[in-house]
Amino acid sequence: MAASNQTILVTGGAGFTHTTLQLLKQGFKVAIIDNVDNSVGEAVDRVRDLVEPQLSNNLDFHLVLTNGIYAKLQRNALSVIEALTKLH
Fold this sequence. Notes:
alpha/beta; four-stranded mixed sheet; 4 helices; Bifunctional UDP-glucose 4-epimerase and UDP-xylose 4-epimerase 1
């Protein structure tokens, strides 16, 4: 099976941007699930900026906050995270 057909789940992925970047460059789709307790969602936006647009489309960021709020973020994760964290 080619890497482009496989999705790798990276839990806590906002803190593993180097790993995420390498997986994208190797042709994998990457799904990140993070609650950003020990990282920042802005890091995921930086990964998107470092790869070409086609590879950026292979990255999904799923934010799960401790109060159960869930969001799938495409871009501008920092502003969305700030808004969501004010809810709890």
